[in-house]
Specification:
With 161 residues, the protein is mostly helical.
C-alpha cells in the first residue's frame, strides 16, 4: 500500500508543481491584458479557478501523510497510551468514513455534470469537479495507510502513538 501511495503522492506533488506556476502565469497575463490592453482572455479566470480546485484537492491529499492538517494533538498528549490508541482509532474511523462519503457524493455530483458546459471554455463541468473524488480517494488511501501503521505500532509498542 505504501508504494502505491508513494506514487500517488508523487503525482500530486508534481501536478501541483506544474499547476501553481501555470495558474499564477495565467492570472498575471490576465491582469496585464485587462488593465494595460483592455482586452482580457475570456477563459483565463475560469481556467485559474479550476486549477485552484485541483491544487486544493491534490494538496490536501499530499498533506495527509505528513500530518499537516489540523488535529487535536494537545488532547491526545494528555491521555494514557491505551486511551490515545482508542481515541486515534475512533478519529481515523470517523475520518475514513467521511472520506468515503465525500468520494461517493463527489463522484455522483461530478458525473452528473457531464452535460453541463463551462461558460468560457465550454468543457464538461465534470473535469473540474472530478478533483473532489480524486482528492478524497487519495486522502482515504493515505489516511488508511497511516491508520494501519499507527495501530500496528501501537500493538507492537514501536513508535509514538
Amino acid at each position: 500500500m505504501r508504494k502505491v501511495n508513494d506514487l500517488l503522492l508523487m503525482f500530486c506533488k508534481y501536478a501541483i508543481i506544474v499547476m501553481v506556476p501555470v495558474m499564477t502565469g495565467i492570472i498575471f497575463v490576465q491582469v496585464v491584458l485587462r488593465y494595460v490592453f483592455e482586452s482580457p482572455f475570456s477563459w483565463a479566470e475560469e481556467l485559474a479557478r479550476y486549477l485552484l480546485i485541483w491544487i486544493t484537492c491534490l494538496g490536501s491529499a499530499y498533506a495527509i501523510r505528513d500530518g499537516m492538517h489540523i488535529s487535536i494533538g494537545y488532547l491526545r498528549s494528555k491521555l494514557k497510551k491505551s486511551a490515545r490508541t482508542l481515541v486515534s482509532a475512533v478519529i481515523y474511523i470517523m475520518t475514513l468514513g467521511f472520506f468515503i462519503y465525500c468520494i461517493k457524493e463527489g463522484a455522483l455530483f461530478s458525473l452528473a455534470q457531464w452535460s453541463q458546459r463551462s461558460t468560457a471554455m465550454q468543457i464538461p463541468m465534470t473535469l473540474p469537479y472530478i478533483a473532489i473524488p480524486v482528492g478524497f480517494t487519495i486522502m482515504f488511501l493515505v489516511a488508511l495507510e497511516c491508520f494501519i501503521d499507527e495501530m500496528r505500532n501501537s500493538a507492537t509498542g514501536n513508535g509514538v502513538v
